[in-house]
Amino acid sequence: MEFRYLGNSGLKISEITYGNWLTHGSQVENDVATKCVQAALDAGISTFDTADVYANTKAETVLGDALKGERRESLEIFTKVYWPTGPGGKNDTGLSRKHIMESINGSLQRLQTDYVDLYQAHRYDTETPLEETMTAFADVVRQGKALYIGVSEWTADQIREGVKLAKELNIQLISSQPQYSMLWRVIEDEVVPTSKELGVSQIVWSPIAQGVLTGKYQPGQKPPEGSRAADEKGGADMIKRFMNDDVLTRVQKLKPIADEAGLSMAQLAVAWVLQNDNVAAALVGASRPEQVAENVKAAGVKLEDTQLKAIDEALGDIVERDPGKTKETSPQSRVA
């Protein structure tokens, strides 16, 4: 395993970070989830990312149980706040002071820890003054409940304003968690340059494009039974933007590139995002322990310029690059 600094801070995290978005507490049984976490630890992963909204708080509980007994100082545990939790009442969502203060306490209890290493704004809250949000985050840090602050799916302008307020409040906003993959490169033109300037790193989710970049989805064929694209409860809606024959045909052209590099297509996809020097970590999930062991093989891989060029040529114009997609795919008002 390789380790990278997160933003302009002294915190090092594993460049393959374990995330439990669509699996723990929902898709897989708790004993399997625990085995996946143990496989991550065995592979040298020290960084674990979750959120209170995943499986409506159950994912945090599963992760807390799975990490019980591990040396806390050797781990980096990340979670997030924004989306509705509990019964979804009027104050059970967003980035108000009330919701942040109540959410961090709930997350710590479920994760069975006194603090998280990184507390992230899971989306931008258009209905709460940013000053209120950042002041609440600052108080969470000063209370020792979080060490650093991050954001997820914020635009470049939102990140800039957040970092400015964080500095005024003497706390460190050091990370951005966007979707990023060979197929989805919307952060490259604005978010990445702004983040580099401000000392913010990316922790990217969906580096395998919800499984599309594994090559298991064939053009003109139904998704395999049990796959994410076939599961209406487990992410089929998220993956559908890639599930067309144009995309799937282009993705198949990546196989010889992966073969030449001695990688699986999934490993190639994870290694590709890690070539970006503003990316501190790629988030990978798993429904089976062996998936963790396979994904970790992308750590430390250096792709040649010729291979990167071949990837661009294979995918051509199906790649989404519009920076406006960050705002477009984020909520424009609070979801209650």
Automatic annotation (TrEMBL):
Biased composition (Basic and acidic residues): 314-328
Keywords of this entry: NADP, Oxidoreductase
Location of region: Disordered: 314-336
InterPro entries on file: AKR, K_chnl_volt-dep_bsu_KCNAB-rel, NAD(P)_OxRdtase_dom_sf, NADP_OxRdtase_dom
Source superkingdom: Bacteria
Domain NADP-dependent oxidoreductase per the UniProt entry, residue ranges: 15-314
Pfam families, alphabetized: Aldo_ket_red (PF00248)
Keyword Nucleotide-binding recorded: no
Family from the record: Belongs to the shaker potassium channel beta subunit family.
Protein name: Aldo/keto reductase family protein
Source organism of this protein record: Pedococcus ginsenosidimutans
